[in-house]
């Protein structure tokens, strides 16, 4: 299969999440610098990445070891896209292993603050002092560099603390620049964004809301939208944006599975009404769910049992569409030609 071509550069940064506790922090730091960032799971497709047309890519850290058979990975065509890449911690080790370097278990690991000595500033460390305090959290280490990579910084316990490949425009850090414990961490990220990726600092939350609302208006037109509400951040923000765009043509549905905290359905409904002005339509499906889950212990079977949620939505749709005809199309389900349902991926 041919590599998908990138669209004209949009200037955002794509973050491939390998399960790091700091991934959201990376995204926050980038957005604080005025550049939009999107987080993709390591299980996302290469096509999803290409559709973002990123100006640069960051590979996050993660709790796994690159030495494990089941270690997270990503499509290696990422290195053929021609955009700058920054690997952090696990992301660094994954890059090193791909290009033929050797990753091994460290004797004692490197955790907490340590002193970093910069021996080749490059554009990544431009404008920084030659010695920094940085934050580490890793058990594995790159013991042998991949071909054509050079060391640009080291610590007392890690001779390859930062490396780069100028020709491929790849930079790797064993420490975490996104945490406040790392001195000048924001400057390091800013150098990657503006000196290496040439991203534009033209994003702010206000413009994001306006653009999202306008996009929803264009896509929905005069149709109505059914939205599955969980009470979590993702679906609540989605509801707020859609409601701002189309008002009462939004039909939010909350399903009580019988597995909620006491009075949780009522609390969520009241919070949405009072804070966002959105009326939620609650459906009690506790009997159906609990019946399906009776005597089921296997997690996979439990997950399949929860597909009953679609039938609950089907019943609810009779209020807005007389003859529902399901056609599954990620990330929404289309019902006839007039009604669209936006469903959280984990819900359906």
Automatic annotation (TrEMBL):
- Keyword Glycoprotein found: no
Keywords annotated in UniProt = ATP-binding, Glutamine amidotransferase, GMP biosynthesis, Ligase, Nucleotide-binding, Purine biosynthesis
Q: Which organism is it from?
A: Methylacidiphilum kamchatkense Kam1
**Name of this protein:** GMP synthase (Glutamine-hydrolysing) A subunit
Question: Which is an annotated Pfam family here?
Answer: GATase
Matching entries from SUPFAM superfamilies are given as: Adenine nucleotide alpha hydrolases-like, Class I glutamine amidotransferase-like
| Gene Ontology molecular function, alphabetical | ATP binding; GMP synthase activity
Q: Where is the signal peptide?
A: none
Which residue numbers delimit the GMPS ATP-PPase domain?
203-348
**Can the keyword Nucleotidyltransferase be found in this entry's annotation?**
no
Q: Which GO terms describe its cellular component?
A: cytosol
Which superkingdom does the taxonomy of this entry point to?
Bacteria
Annotated positions binding ATP: 230-236
């Amino acid at each position: 299969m041919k590599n998908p071509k990138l669209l004209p550069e949009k200037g955002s940064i794509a973050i491939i999440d390998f399960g790091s506790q700091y991934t959201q922090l990376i995204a926050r730091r980038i957005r604080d610098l005025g550049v939009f960032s999107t987080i993709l799971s390591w299980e996302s497709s290469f096509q999803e990445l290409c559709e973002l047309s990123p100006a640069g890519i960051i590979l996050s850290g993660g709790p796994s070891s690159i030495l494990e058979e089941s270690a997270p990975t990503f499509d290696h065509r990422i290195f053929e896209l021609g955009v700058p890449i920054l690997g952090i911690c696990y992301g660094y080790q994954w890059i090193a292993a791909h290009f033929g370097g050797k990753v091994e278990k460290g004797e004692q690991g490197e955790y907490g603050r340590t002193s970093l000595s910069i021996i080749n500033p490059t554009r990544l460390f431009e404008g920084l002092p030659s010695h920094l305090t940085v934050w580490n959290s890793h058990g594995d280490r790159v013991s042998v560099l991949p071909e054509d990579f050079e060391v640009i910084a080291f610590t007392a316990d890690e001779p390859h603390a930062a490396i780069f490949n100028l020709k491929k425009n790849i930079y790797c850090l064993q420490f975490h620049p996104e945490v406040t414990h790392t001195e000048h961490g924001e400057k390091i990220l800013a150098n990657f964004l503006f000196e290496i990726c040439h991203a534009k600092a033209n994003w702010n939350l206000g413009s994001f809301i306006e653009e999202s609302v306008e996009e929803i208006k264009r896509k929905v037109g005069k149709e109505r939208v059914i939205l599955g509400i969980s009470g979590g951040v993702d679906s609540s923000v989605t509801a707020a944006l859609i409601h701002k765009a189309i008002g009462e043509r939004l039909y939010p549905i909350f399903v009580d599975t019988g597995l909620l905290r006491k009075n949780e359905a009522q609390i969520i409904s009241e919070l949405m009404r009072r804070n966002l002005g959105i009326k939620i339509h609650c459906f009690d499906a506790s009997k159906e769910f609990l019946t399906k889950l009776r005597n089921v212990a296997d997690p996979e079977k439990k997950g399949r049992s929860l597909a009953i949620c679609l039938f609950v939505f089907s019943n609810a749709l009779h209020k807005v569409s007389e003859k529902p005809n399901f056609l599954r199309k990620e990330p929404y389900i289309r019902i006839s030609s007039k009604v669209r349902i936006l469903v959280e991926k984990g819900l359906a």
